[in-house]
Amino acid sequence: MPDRVYGGRTAADRRAERRQRLLDAGLELFGTEGYLATSIERLCSAAGVSTRNFYEEFTGREALLTALHDLVLERAMRAVADAFARAENEPLALRIELAVRAYITTTAEDRRWARLSYVEIVGVSESVERHRLAWRERWVAFLVAEARRAVEHGEAMSRDFHLSAVALIGAVNELVYHWAVGDHRIPLDDVIAEIVRIATATLTGP
């Protein structure tokens, strides 16, 4: 049966618009007032949808939170991959700087995304922690692959980079968390510069 059209929009179009409004409301409320302070009723009011519409898209607040987390980290992974690809023939130090800047600007330049990505996503529940740690493993694999490419180019010593990648991710999370909960008094460029120093030392150290 064909999708009925009302006002020039199909049911699928209207549902996609409702989902986007819920994502926008989640980003705004989770990213400004916090996950715990945000009820489903407030999300629905901000999005202009019914509670029934909410549950047609998400099983609950956690599902909305993890959907937003997926969105920002997928964008960040594409941005970092693009940065490495564009600077493929540049020195390692420049590649690291461009990749770090791509990641941080994607996840933290908008303060709502920063709060969601580095503060609100942590410690919500066992299922959200599994989601967050699964993303960490994806980033570990990505960073280890880039480190091995640096070894192939003679820019780094060959070794097991797994723990180093975990440590680097921890440093990034803690530094941006510190920046976010400190009301952004530290310039974000200073945070980026510190992460670049740590990442460079991680890759080029013995």
Automatic annotation (TrEMBL):
InterPro entries: Homeodomain-like_sf, HTH-type_TetR-like_transc_reg, HTH_TetR, Tet_transcr_reg_TetR-rel_C_sf. Residues 39-58 bind DNA. PROSITE patterns: HTH_TETR_2. It comes from the Bacteria. GO terms for molecular function: DNA-binding transcription factor activity; transcription cis-regulatory region binding. Coiled coil: none annotated. Residues 16-76 form the HTH tetR-type domain. The keyword Repeat does not apply. Keywords: DNA-binding. The keyword Nucleus does not apply. This is Transcriptional regulator. It comes from Prauserella flavalba. The lineage of its organism: Bacteria, Bacillati, Actinomycetota, Actinomycetes, Pseudonocardiales.
